[in-house]
Automatic annotation (TrEMBL), chain A:
It comes from the Bacteria. It holds the Pfam family Oxidored_q6. InterPro entries: Hydrogenase_assoc-protein, NADH_UbQ_OxRdtase-like_20kDa, NiFe_Hase_small_N_sf. Gene3D superfamilies: NADH:ubiquinone oxidoreductase-like, 20kDa subunit (3.40.50.700). The keyword Transcription regulation does not apply. SUPFAM superfamilies: HydA/Nqo6-like. Keywords: 3Fe-4S, Iron, Iron-sulfur, Metal-binding, Oxidoreductase. Signal peptide: none annotated. This is NADP oxidoreductase. Residues 20-167 form the NADH:ubiquinone oxidoreductase-like 20kDa subunit domain. Its cofactor is [3Fe-4S] cluster. It comes from Azonexus hydrophilus.
From TrEMBL, chain B:
InterPro entries: 2Fe-2S_ferredoxin-like_sf, 2Fe-2S_ferredoxin-type, NAD-red_Hydgase_HoxS_gsu, NADH_UbQ_OxRdtase_75kDa_su_CS, NADH_UbQ_OxRdtase_Gsu_4Fe4S-bd. Its cofactor is [4Fe-4S] cluster. It comes from Azonexus hydrophilus. This is 2Fe-2S iron-sulfur cluster-binding protein. The keyword Metal-binding applies. The keyword Iron applies.
Length: 184, 253
């Protein structure tokens, strides 16, 4: 049988914005299926590779976490500009998730509460220019850039991620339904 | 012969549904084992027609299956892509309108809103989130009220009024300012007549009215809508009666 001659591997970029890396951990939970995946894809910018900026022409971007600060916005826009398909990966990317529980609080009050001295007499909010500024609210990914697919779950289970990726890699429209579809 | 059978039956998506006069389309459908998505309906309470999830097309016109009476020979469209698309949009609007944070909610797995979203394959809320600021009331010794999750179906209002005879809850405000209020001098649940045995405590389809100290006694993964999607639990939906005699019935005796 004539195997196709070295089909181009798809380039995947992943990032965790305002997330806990739980979705990435769940991604690694696909275990030995990672080897199958590695035969089909190569990783670009990702916590797995430690590449800092994604290259042009990525095929797939998995974005974990909501958008909570200015750096998140830059990273997200970079991924959107360079990836053909961008996926909101996990609950926080889909609806803000746990970080968005600060959304009913004033961000200034939040900072002064967290960074005040123990006796409450003074606050020392870090203002190093290297630190990205917080946004007023934590935003879901789709409220900042266009999103192609949503993969909910906190985190999405390894089986859910595998189903999604295999659907996508084999050219099917990804379909996540019971019992793989979970918001928690 | 077909005329006699038509006299007490109608069709949903081409399937014959028998009914007894006085039944709504939803009641007849559930009794016949046919699923119509719904949130604000409860078998023991008067229809409300507010969530619009059960909207069906009856002889070409939209109508709420929970309020519209079953009539001989009507043709009802229910499980169609068009209607399910609309239902998904309604769910998405409910999700962005409140603060529905499933990973941190004790109701997850028992929540009808979540179960409907799973069943209709709602992957994301789509609309811009409102992130409203809403209070939590923990003043009651046995029950807490989290208005972040309230969808204003008024099931608690109806149960408290018609079954418990206490009128603990009411809907106040208009439009986006609509919210559930508690009937007590302070407006707090702890000062109201509510008790843990009240039907109003147990009819909430979401995680807005929660019993304290129960939490995760039934673990996530073993809950009502974990095993089977809600659309395959018609028997449960039709028969989840409240084991409390309505006050109206006791007064008649």
């Amino acid at each position: 049988m004539n195997a196709p001659m070295n089909p181009r591997k798809l380039r995947i970029t992943t990032t965790s914005l305002s997330g806990c890396f739980g979705c990435h951990m769940s991604f690694l939970d696909i275990d030995e299926r990672l080897l199958e995946l590695a035969a089909l894809v190569e990783f670009d910018r990702s916590p797995i590779t430690d590449i800092k900026h994604c290259s042009q022409h990525c095929d797939l971007a998995l974005v974990e976490g909501g958008v909570c600060n200015a750096e998140n916005v830059h990273v997200l826009r970079e991924l959107r500009a360079n990836a053909k398909i961008l996926v909101a990966f996990g609950a926080c990317a889909v609806n803000g998730g746990l970080p968005a529980q600060r959304n009913h609080l004033d961000v200034g009050q939040c900072l002064s509460q967290v960074y005040r001295t123990p006796d409450g007499s003074a606050t020392a909010i870090p203002d190093d220019p290297e630190l990205p500024l917080l946004l007023d609210k934590v935003y879901p990914v789709n409220e900042v850039v266009r999103v192609d697919y949503f993969l909910p779950g906190c985190p999405p289970s390894a089986d859910t991620i595998w189903k999604f990726l295999t659907d996508l890699l084999t050219g099917r429209t990804p379909r996540i339904e019971h019992p793989l579809l979970k918001f928690d | 012969m077909s005329e006699t059978s038509n006299a007490n039956s109608f069709s949903i998506d081409g399937q014959r549904i028998p009914f007894t006069p006085g039944q709504t389309i939803l009641q007849a459908a559930l009794a016949a084992g046919v699923y119509i998505p719904h949130l604000c309906h409860h078998p023991d309470l008067k229809p409300h027609g507010s969530c619009k999830l059960c909207t069906v097309i009856v002889n070409g016109r939209n109508g709420s299956a929970c309020t519209q009476m079953a009539m001989p020979g009507i043709e009802v469209e229910n499980n169609s892509p068009t209607l399910n698309d609309r239902r998904r949009v309604l769910l998405q609007m409910l999700f962005v309108e409140g603060n529905h944070f499933c990973p941190g909610c004790e109701k997850s797995g028992n929540c009808q809103l979540q179960a409907l979203a799973y069943d209709l394959e709602m992957l994301a809320p789509h609309f811009r989130h409102a992130y409203p600021v809403r209070p939590i009331d923990t003043t009651h010794p046995d029950v807490w009220l989290d208005l972040n999750r309230c969808i204003m179906c008024e099931l608690c209002v109806r149960a408290s009024r018609d079954i418990d005879g206490k009128n603990v809850f009411a809907l106040a405000g208009r439009g986006v300012d609509s919210h559930i209020v508690v009937n007590s001098p302070s407006g707090r649940l702890g000062d109201s007549a509510l008790s843990i045995d009240d039907a109003a405590v147990h009819v909430c389809p979401v995680g807005a009215i929660m019993v304290k100290r129960v939490g995760y006694a039934v673990p996530i993964g073993e809950r009502q809508f974990d095993e089977q999607p809600i659309s395959r639990q018609v028997d449960y939906l039709a028969a989840r009666h409240i084991p409390i005699v309505p006050v109206a019935a006791t007064e008649e005796r």
